[in-house]
Write a structure and sequence with these properties.
The chain has 195 residues and is mainly alpha-helical. The chain has one domain. The chain has nine helices and two strands. Helix 8 packs parallel to helix 9. The longest helix has 21 residues. The chain starts with 7 loop residues before the first helix and ends in a 22-residue tail after the last helix.
């Protein structure tokens, strides 16, 4: 039987403490920003609420892939770590864009990748979000070994590789999902922020 599509709240409830409470506090302190954030300016889930839709989709894809892969070989990490990385990997998005003349515009300071990384880490520190060594590696490499690839040293750990697969599936394989209506994944259409 196909796994039904779950809301983002379902996955965030599965985070281990103290991160579950820290993430809830971060979201409760910024409901307008999180609720309206776009998934991206153009490439994936680029609609109001698309940020949540992307993370939600990432987590749903992760659940399916984790179950399928775990039935063949044990996974060396738990889903709580995957869901935490999913939530954190684009944490700057609610602050990154502004709407100007009905067009989404990147705020200038967010063009600098090092600024973006500091911004996310500062938010995590402010709210007391703690990462294990593997979660930090996944946070750093969820979007690939950009600028850090070496044929002699593996940068991306196993959790990072799994999270990268899920992120790519949502952002590049299915960037228009979740569909507002008639999404083929059972339970998905009523979970989208595209209303």
């Amino acid at each position: 039987m196909a796994m039904p599509y779950q809301p983002l709240s379902y996955f965030l409830d599965l985070l281990e403490e103290p991160n579950r409470s820290a993430v809830r506090k971060l979201m409760l302190d910024n409901p307008q920003l999180f609720g309206r954030a776009y998934g991206s300016a153009h490439n994936h889930q680029n609609w109001e609420g698309g940020y949540f839709d992307h993370i939600q989709d990432f987590c749903n894809i992760a659940s399916v892939l984790y179950e399928a892969l775990s039935s063949k070989r044990p996974m060396p990490f738990g889903l709580s770590s995957v869901f935490l990385v999913a939530f954190l990997h684009d944490l700057e998005k609610p602050w990154k864009y502004e709407v100007v003349k009905r067009r989404l515009r990147l705020k200038p300071e967010f063009r600098d990748r090092s600024f973006v990384n500091r911004f996310k880490l500062d938010l995590m520190k402010k709210y007391g979000i703690k990462l294990t060594k593997d979660e930090r590696n996944a946070f750093d490499y969820v979007e690939g070994e950009i600028g850090n690839y070496s044929p002699y040293k593996r940068g991306m750990g196993k959790l990072a590789a799994f999270c990268h697969m899920c992120d790519i599936a949502s952002a590049r394989l299915m960037p228009e999902h979740p569909l507002k209506h008639d999404d083929p994944w059972p339970g998905c259409s009523d979970r989208s922020h595209r209303r």
